[in-house]
Write a structure and sequence with these properties.
This protein is of the alpha/beta class. The protein has ten helices and nine strands. It is 38% helix and 12% strand. Strand 4, helix 3 and strand 5 form a beta-alpha-beta unit.
């Protein structure tokens, strides 16, 4: 897609009879020369993306596959039991945290006055960026002492270990997390996600459905806040979910690499046979 190192000009010349888009760019290229966009039924339900230039090539499983890091620390205990308050978190890049996202997360913090929010992004190493972000939350009545802003970690293992301080992850909106959400769940942190109609805002829904956690994905702002409040109100169930989340993920299609390979191979074969039949 339109990401670093892209080759849109090359695609437009149609160097291959069948061309497909997958991962990286969560949208349509708008190119008539691009035939398919590899996706799934959660991201692309019937008729949802009629505006896209590519035909959806839907896999019968999540269209992404996550390989857990070998250096990931063990899942920790539920932090709110020790700290006495819930801590929400997001490790998504700040480019995904627009005004609508800040407002949504502020609604959660307003509904839970004792809650804190931990945000981690490399951009937060800059003092000006931190000040502007705090100001954006302040406009929604969220004081700076309810936010913890973290930038770089010394290692990837240390980055993942920070999830041991987070009770619940808040998905970014309208551009959801993908790798970030997988990492959170691997570390035992459930993700609450708000979905809409566009491709980028249905990534969380796809991941959570694959985990059997459909109830943590919602199509309304009120539902997003309600799910966060509900999780916090049931600490025993939240602790049990945390303790079992890694094994749940290990048993799900999200980490089934052989199954992913078979699904992709079949999709490619179907697309190629379709092209041959039209010749």
């Amino acid at each position: 897609g339109f990401t670093e190192g892209q080759a849109v000009e090359a695609w437009a010349t149609k160097p291959a009879p069948v061309q497909m888009l997958w991962l990286g760019y969560l949208g349509s290229t708008g190119l008539g020369a691009m035939d398919f966009r590899i996706t799934d039924w959660s991201v692309d339900p019937e008729g949802a993306q009629d505006w896209a230039s590519e035909a959806p090539l839907r896999l019968p499983r999540p269209y992404v596959c996550y390989q857990p890091a070998s250096y990931a620390p063990e899942v920790g205990a539920l932090p709110m039991r020790e700290r006495g308050h819930p801590t929400f978190g997001s490790f998504n890049t700040l480019q995904k945290i627009g005004d609508a996202c800040v407002e949504l997360w502020s609604d959660v913090l307003q509904a839970l006055p004792s809650a804190r929010l931990l945000l981690k992004a490399m951009e937060l190493s800059d003092a000006g960026v931190r000040e502007r972000l705090l100001g954006r939350f302040a406009r929604h009545g969220i004081a700076a002492d309810r936010l913890e802003l973290v930038s770089w970690s010394r290692s990837k293992a240390e980055h993942l270990a920070l999830y041991q301080r987070v009770d619940i992850a808040l998905d970014s909106f309208p551009y959801n997390g993908v790798t970030t959400s997988c990492e959170a769940m691997w570390m035992g942190v459930p993700v609450v996600s708000l979905h809409r109609d566009c491709i980028a805002s249905r990534q969380g829904l796809s991941l959570l459905r694959a985990m059997g956690l459909d109830q943590l994905a919602t199509g309304s702002r009120a539902g997003f806040v309600a799910r966060c409040v509900d999780l916090v109100s049931r600490p025993d169930e939240l602790a049990a979910l945390r303790a079992g989340l890694r094994e749940r993920m290990r048993a799900s299609e999200l980490t089934d690499a052989p199954g992913m390979a078979r699904a992709m191979e079949q999709a490619w074969r179907d697309a190629w046979q379709g092209w041959c039949a039209r010749r």
